[in-house]
Specification:
InterPro entries: GH, GH13_cat_dom, Maltooligo_trehalose_synth_4, Trehalose_TreY. Helix content is about 45%, strand content about 15%. Helix 24 packs across helix 29. The strands form eight sheets. It has an eight-stranded parallel beta sheet. The protein has a six-stranded antiparallel beta sheet with strand order 21-23-24-29-26-27. The chain has a three-stranded antiparallel beta sheet with strand order 6-13-12, with no helix packed on it. The chain contains 34 helices and 29 strands.
Length: about 900
């Protein structure tokens, strides 16, 4: 199917395929998505993944549409529906890794054939040792002795292999004779002969021959299966040593893997897309879809995991041409920017979430919350927690990577001038200190010197690392510095540089997002991917600065407020922002609850459960996720919410990695914390107090949710709507945020006129937010160049409460838009409710710059788009949706 290229994305709608979302289900939603004003459907991975995958990032075949989603025929139906509606399609692709699973034919090939496999160089495997398969619940020897591991034939795959419960790991064909020695059966001899003559480049014919032999001798097959069960443990152990792989305890993955993995997930093996053949093989289908005009944009998963992101993106850009939008999943820290020479439109938008936190977080209130948290749960400062988490990752979770990098670095350093003669322990110590010293995810050096931005990053990390090192470790640090700055020649030096850069990113991600964010609970609204839990200077001016930069650096990056990876839903975060705007009421309530619930806290050998930091965080998490409209006497509703919240609590305890772990859960500790939560949710006294305390913050949160939506629609970047978040999104961290939304409800709401009503029913139902999305996206479609290319200008406001609002203009040639939204209004609402906010808004005036004076403005939030004449002043009260305003002019 060929169709013309679509215009640039003006707004995207992210669908999470799987969990009930199929191609046909998505096709049925096309009219609804179109009606919102979306221009491009933004699809999570749609290619074949492991059976039962809930996310699709564990790809097993990048050139096959997932049969569980509807296969090629289902995709074609979705594509036809999108084409008929004139909607584009952006697809999330995964170049960094694939599933380390026998379901993946490329991985199965290297398991079976080892270095003989055509795919031996497809994955980042160290073939100096056997391929490690972390699938066992204990040691291999124990598994054999217990009878868990044996020999079996997998007829469907056409292999003889080592069996472990339901899995059969194929033997190297040349070892079939060894495996079948002493079994005097015709079929055994046939299989041994097939194995002896097998070739890796003709493996399909080999497997077909095995199946044919089995089918031709069914009686012999039964006898052979019986004989295989009788093979002695010693023979199985000897046979295993002849294989190109080793089955090992999954708990040993951190220290003994022979391949690069995605983060710390042994089930995801790194791809070598820097190799042109691997690139072509793993991108064949997606490039075909792009070239035929069926796919109109690409989202690149985990670009920082690649050996050379720029080289990959250059190759991809050359393959898809200059007009296909490419956005990358990359976390930008503080003042970091996407490299100017990367041929991409920008990122998927986590830095936009961080910018919004600047807008809605009141600095004084955040400081007050932090001080109260420190009194309630005395402990390490956040910077120390993050540093401890990094060292934990480097010493335990990434122990194997550090060992391998130490070996490579020692060899590389020793290639020049006799350097690198210190101990491996000193080198590893210096290496850990340097990685832990990084303030960003990674540098991007390939051949030659680092660029100036990376030089600054490395300089700062070296200075931080050197402080606590021994003399020998400092010498080793000098060797590492020389390698990273490109001062050492040779392949080993280049390999060290690449592997170092591929390690620092995962360490930062796992230490910060998946450890420190679950340990430091002062103000959970800031514990977000791309964010900073101790943001030093949140301000409206800081938000303006970020948007000015965004126009300059990545005007077509996605502006997201929720994704499948965010720590909580966008409206949960919007509600929690209110705590910083009125902290004392919350602090007093936590002190009250702590006293009344003291009897539910258990004393365990490891300390109190929950400990104060966890208890503080639980109250905030409950506040963010509490469903709108859930009554304290709704037993069934509270039970359903409690099940979701229990999964969240389990994740927080294990991700914190303090008293319980995914690999070794502390059942007593986890049970005590879960009991505490159950007691909260079953206590009528607590629930009544909680609901009364939450009420004012919940109301502020509804307005905050509308405000951040308006800002997203009008500010720099391409607004991305995560499935269902066009109404209310109070979800918890994944997998909760990947649930299928109630699209029937969303479609019913969308059948109503797009009138923005600010009554409580409209706010709580999400109708007001959905109407705002529809009106705002209609404005974008009416003036696409303005919102895609326009400058961003902060505007000044006057009025008694001007500091509680944000205002900005977008200007492009003769076109302009002005947006105003309330961002710090909690005390107004708490004191006088919506009437207090309306009174404040009525006094707000927007001061127009000289080039926008004397124009006619059209109200984009009112159904009739009334015209407003304005000279130097534009009154917020002129908006039909005040205290929200979006007006445009065309000169």
């Amino acid at each position: 199917m060929t169709r013309p290229a679509f215009a640039r994305p003006l707004a995207t709608y992210r669908l999470q395929f799987r969990n009930g979302m199929t191609f046909d289900k998505a096709a049925s939603l096309v009219p609804y998505i179109k009606n919102l004003g979306i221009t491009h459907l933004y699809a999570s991975p749609i290619f074949a993944a492991t059976k039962g995958s809930t996310h699709g990032y564990d790809v097993t075949d990048a050139n096959l549409f997932d049969p569980d989603l509807g296969g090629r025929e289902g995709f074609d139906r979705l594509s036809a529906a999108l084409s008929a509606a004139e909607l584009g399609l952006i697809v999330d692709i995964v170049p960094n890794h694939m599933a380390a699973s026998l379901e993946n034919p490329w991985w199965r090939s290297i398991v079976e054939w080892g270095e003989e496999s055509p795919h031996a160089r497809t994955f980042d495997v160290d073939w100096a040792q056997p391929l490690t398969l972390t699938v066992l619940g204990g040691s291999f020897e124990e598994g054999v002795q217990k009878g868990e591991i044996g020999l079996a034939i997998d007829r469907e795959a056409g292999v003889l292999g080592l069996s472990y419960y339901e899995q059969v790991f194929p033997l190297l064909p040349s070892t079939y004779k060894m495996a079948l020695e002493g079994i005097d059966l015709p079929l055994a001899r046939t299989l041994a002969e097939c194995g002896s003559s097998a070739r890796a480049d003709e493996d399909e014919a080999f497997h077909a021959a095995i199946r044919q032999a089995i089918d031709a001798d069914k009686e012999g097959m039964e006898a052979l299966q019986t004989a295989l069960k009788a093979v002695k443990p010693g023979s199985i152990l000897a046979l295993s040593q002849a294989q190109p792989y080793r089955l090992m305890d999954w708990k040993k993955a951190a220290s003994g893997l022979s391949y690069r993995r995605f983060f710390e997930i042994a089930g995801l093996a790194g791809l070598r897309v820097e190799d042109e053949q691997v690139f072509e093989a793993s991108h064949r289908l997606i490039l075909d879809l792009v070239r035929k005009g069926i796919v109109h944009g690409l989202r690149i998963d985990h670009v920082d995991g690649l050996a050379d992101p720029k080289a990959y993106l250059d190759r991809l850009r050359a393959a898809v041409g200059p007009d296909v939008p490419i956005v990358i999943e990359k976390i930008i820290e503080e003042e970091e920017s996407v490299a100017e020479d990367w041929p991409v439109e920008g990122t998927t938008g986590y830095e936009f979430v961080a910018a919004l936190a600047q807008l809605f977080t009141a600095k004084d209130g955040m400081t007050t919350l932090g001080a109260a948290y420190d009194r309630f749960a005395p402990g390490e400062a956040y910077d120390d927690i993050l540093q401890d988490a990094k060292m934990l990752m480097l010493r335990e979770n990434f122990e194997g990577e550090v060992k391998a990098l130490t070996r490579i670095g020692k060899e590389a350093a020793g290639q020049a001038d006799g350097a690198g003669t210190g101990s491996a322990e000193a080198f590893a110590g210096a290496l850990r200190a340097l990685v832990a010293g990084f303030s960003v995810y990674r540098t991007y050096g390939t051949d030659g010197p680092l660029n100036s931005a990376d030089e600054k990053v490395l300089d700062a990390a070296l200075a931080k690392a050197a402080g606590d090192l021994s003399v020998e470790e400092r010498d080793a640090l000098g060797d590492i510095e020389a390698l990273l700055r490109g001062r050492r020649p040779g392949e080993k030096a280049a390999l060290f540089r690449t592997r170092f850069q591929q390690l620092s990113g995962p360490v930062m991600a796992k230490a910060m997002e998946d450890t420190a964010f679950y340990r430091y609970n002062a103000f959970l609204a800031l514990n977000e991917v791309g964010g900073n839990p101790v943001e030093p200077h949140p301000s409206i001016d800081a938000f303006h600065d970020a948007m000015v930069r965004r126009v300059s650096e990545q005007p077509e990056a996605l502006s997201t407020t929720a994704t499948h990876d965010t720590k909580r839903g966008e409206d949960a975060r919007a509600r929690l922002y209110a705590l910083s705007q009125g902290p004392q009421r919350w602090i007093d309530a936590v002190g009250r609850w702590h006293a009344t619930q003291a009897g539910s806290v258990k004393d365990l050998p490891g300390g109190k459960a929950p400990e104060p930091a966890v208890e503080w965080g639980l109250y905030q998490a409950l506040a963010g996720a509490w469903p709108v409209g859930l009554k304290t006497d709704d037993a069934k509703g509270i039970e359903a919410f409690g099940e979701r919240f229990a999964a969240y609590v389990e994740k927080t305890m294990r991700e914190a990695k303090l008293r319980s772990f995914w690999a070794e859960p502390d059942e007593a500790y986890e049970g005590a914390v879960q009991d505490f939560v159950r007691q909260l949710l079953s206590s009528h006294t607590f629930l009544q107090d909680f609901a009364a305390t939450l009420g004012p913050y919940a109301l502020t949160g509804l307005y905050n949710g509308l405000a951040q939506t308006l800002v997203k629609l009008a500010a720099s970047g391409v607004p991305d709507i995560y499935q269902g978040s066009e109404t209310d999104d109070f979800s918890l961290v994944d997998p909760d945020n990947r649930r299928m939304p109630d699209f029937a409800r969303l479609e019913r709401l969308a059948q109503q006129p797009a009138t923005i009503r600010l009554d409580l029913d409209s706010l709580e139902s999400g109708a007001a937010k959905q109407a705002l999305v529809r009106r705002g996206l209609a404005a974008r479609q009416a003036l696409p160049n303005l919102f895609l290319k326009g400058d961003y200008r902060p505007l000044s406001l006057s009025g008694d409460h001007a500091e509680r609002f944000v205002a900005f203009a977008r200007v492009y040639q003769g076109q302009a838009a002005i947006a105003v939204a309330p961002v710090r209004i909690h005390d107004l609402l708490e004191a006088s409710g919506a009437q207090g906010l309306d009174t404040a808004a009525a006094e707000i005036n927007v001061h127009l710059p000289e080039d926008l004076i004397g124009r006619t403005w059209h109200d984009r939030l009112g159904t009739d788009e009334a015209a407003v004449e304005a000279d130097e002043i534009l009154a917020l009260s002129a908006s039909a949706a005040a205290p929200f305003l979006l007006m445009t002019t065309e000169g």
